[in-house]
Structure formats: C-alpha cells, structure tokens
Amino acid sequence: MTPESPITTIAHVIQLSVAPVFLLTGIGAMLGVMTSRLARIVDRARVLEGPKTNDSTSQEKAAEELVRLSRRARLISASIGLCTLTALLVSAVIAILFLGAFLTFDAAVLVAMLFVAAMLAFIVALLFFLREVFIAISGLRFGYR
Fold first, then answer.
1. CA-to-CA separations, 116 to 2, 4, 89, 111, in angstroms, rounded
2. Is the CB of residue 31 less than 8 Å from the CB of residue 80?
3. Which of 62, 96, 128, 145 is most buried, by the most CB atoms less than 10 A from its CB?
4. Are 45 and 73 in contact, with CB atoms under 8 Å apart?
5. Rounded CA gap, 142 and 126, in Å?
6. 11-49 pLDDT per residue, tens
7. Spatial contact of 65 and 41, defined as CB atoms under 8 Å apart
C-alpha cells in the first residue's frame, strides 16, 4: 500500500471538516437570533424602568414584567454562552482534525469526545432558548388591559 501524498491528506481532512463548518454557520445563525432576543428584552426593561407613574396597578404590572424579563434575560444569556461554547468546541474539532493529519496521531477519540460535548452544549442551549420562548409567550396578554 502506498502512503498518501500530503495533498491527498489535506484534501481528505478538508472533506472531513466541511460538515462541522456548516454546523458553525447554523450556530452563528442561532447566536444572531438569540442576541436579537436579548436586545429586545433589554429594550423592554429600559422602557419599564423609565419614568414611574403614581398608579399602583401599573407599577405592580411593571414589576411583574421586569421579573419575567430578568428571568428571560438569564435564560437567553446562558443559551448564548452555551452556543458560543458549542462553536468553540466545533472549531476545536476542526483544528484537531488537521493537527491529527499533519502530526500523524490518532485523533478519533478526542474528536468524538469534543463533538459529543459540542452537541450536548447545543442541546442544553436550545432547551434554555425554548424555555425563554415559553416564558415570553406566557407573558403575552392580547386584548387584556
């Protein structure tokens, strides 16, 4: 059996890293959605913390909404952190694929462990995101004053 040429090795590693690169694109899109939601939460909280009225009912409603916004902000921030961790782990997978090919060591176990860790982080991030969406929906009151 003839040893692979360096160019063949590079081509093979690039083929292996294409799927994780597409995964990074999806994670980037999710980060964009999540940061947009966080910005909207912050904007709404600023409005509620603005000038206070003397109406105690309005103040109570604003206080309740601020508590809900705070919880949503914590959830979406954790989700952003986990998505960022996912992107870092996937990037590490790609880097180790190349290092393993060039330094000729078996990176299979390390790559598999990092990829599983990335997927677990992404799953938890999506669960936090889903919980934040549920909290946002539960706070909606269409037609009620």
1. 33, 29, 9, 9
2. yes
3. 128
4. yes
5. 27
6. 878 887 888 889 999 999 999 999 999 999 999 999 999
7. no
